[in-house]
Amino acid sequence: MKSWLVLLVVTALGTVVGVGLTYAEKKRGVDLFFTEDGRARLHQLEAARELQFGGKAAAKVVVVGGAEFDFGSMERFAKMQHTFQLKNIGYSPLQLSPSRTSCKCTIGEVSKHTVPHGEVSEITVEWTGQTVLDSVDFSQTVEVGTNDPDQPVVRLSIKGYVTETVRALPSELVVGSISSQTTFEARFLLFAFRDEHLEVLETTWENAETANCFDIAYEPLTEEELAKEKGASCGLAAMLTIKPGLPLGPIKQTIRIKVSADKEALLDIPIKGRAVSDIRLAASPQFDPERGLLNLGTLERTASSKAVMHLYVTGEHRNETHLSVGEVEPAEYLRVDISPPKELSNGKTIQYVITIEVPPGLPPVNRMGGKGIGLGRIILETTHPITKQVPIRVKFAVE
Questions:
Q1: Domain end: 147, 163, 179, which one?
Q2: Which residues lie across from 267 on neighbouring strands?
């Protein structure tokens, strides 16, 4: 008698659960999941269904085909996408809430946020082929929150590698502090990924004023060098030569290389560093020698600003090196005075004191170097046999 009574109760309970869950699925779980009473009702229904189905009532997510997608290779800065399928193999509705992506991934579309038993939600992930510095390996993740008690977060992964028709390694040349009086060499590599032939059609220099201080030569890569670059089909080694005579201060130059491989491409390779020599401008609170920048700040029209700088000349040409004021721009705002030379350290060093002043009473001007606004510029001419000029950039404004 008791067995019949238990069976009758379970059957009735199953009927109630079925009706309740059918209603919940039709409503897509919105009322149940977003109110406190609704969540309590859902928990009761899930508990009843768990009794009916032997502990299998919870939502359970699986990623059809796997949670990692290997796209192989793609062009740098190109866009790609992939659709993951998340299936609910549990008996309660599966709730999906995409929560976080890495910086180069976005979630383009989610077909279902509530997934009934046995159904699939498609999540489309989009990304752009960018990598850190000169790396070619690409790896990004997307996190999707779920109500699966065994897997509250599903991590979807994208991986592969990024290539270009042609790329330079490194993508910029950092040469540090180099002497403007001696020759300096730096080697970098060019790789092609779409063709078995790479040809340099033209090499030019962005800064024409210092182009005569640079030279470059190319030769084929060795098999060992080529094998180190993932996906490369051929390549060239480039030897950059920086000749004596660069102006002191930051090196402002970019190599522009036009090449032909699978198609024509233009590579811009910045050169970053600083030229130093026997002539040196000392640092001060207003002057940054690494940037060659003198900051006079913002002045009232009735006020003036003055900076005192110290320039030192050493080496075998110190006694035959003399300074004079060359280009000054804007000349009406910047007054430059050079003191007579003074011997220091028993004549091993020659010191000059450079005074730069913005006089009072001038019209407003902005030379702070913002977008479309140039800095002031002072060029000190020298009689040094190699270092002919000492440039100073000046940042200031008059209000």
A1: 163
A2: 257
